[in-house]
Amino acid sequence: MNRQEFMEKLEYLLRGIPENERADALAYYNDYFDEAGVENEYQVIQELGSPEQVAQTILEDVQREASQSVRQDYSSPEAECNEGHKEEKKNYEQQHTNTYTSQTTTTEKQGMPTSTKVLLIIVLILTFPLWIGIVAGLFGGLVGCIGALFGIIVGLIGAAIGLVVGGIACVIGGIACLMVSPVDGLVSIGVGAILAAIGILLALPCIWGVGIWIPKAIKALVAWIKGLFHRNEGGNEI
Fold it and tell me: What is the pTM of this model?
């Protein structure tokens, strides 16, 4: 690409900007080529880059200058006056919002009247034997259910262990009887294997129950007790 091709391409790419700005840009780069001389045209083109790059730079400068011009027009006395009115309106709305929030917070802090608080405390004291008995009964029932569940699971695990041990004993006895009575030995081994399999199948859900449901039940009991204490603390605050 030579100088003429470069300038023609640049002029085409700058067709979208005002005529005076396009003429100034083209004059600037023509002067740049003139100062460099004909023998340095290739070097100048290498330094400037492609016409597309140069045109992009010029377009960005034009857009930047247009944006600055718009901002300056917006900063006129009339615009500043409008901004002042907007700021006053914003301050007025903020002041009324703060006043409303303060009044709402004060109303919320007032809460229940003192007479109602005293009456509620008296009722709680008088009915203490009643509700403490209900709470103790519920607590005992829950603990009893957990204990019963745990006992059932432990019993099933014991039975499963017994079946597995008995099955292993039958298998060992059957192996020992193979030399004397092969038929009885095989029957004993089969029965022992069945008993061991039943014991293992019975133990698996029990172990799963101990590992999953018992901790969940304990956590539920602890959470329930904490909830009672929190309610009592809320009553004291009242």
Answer: 0.33
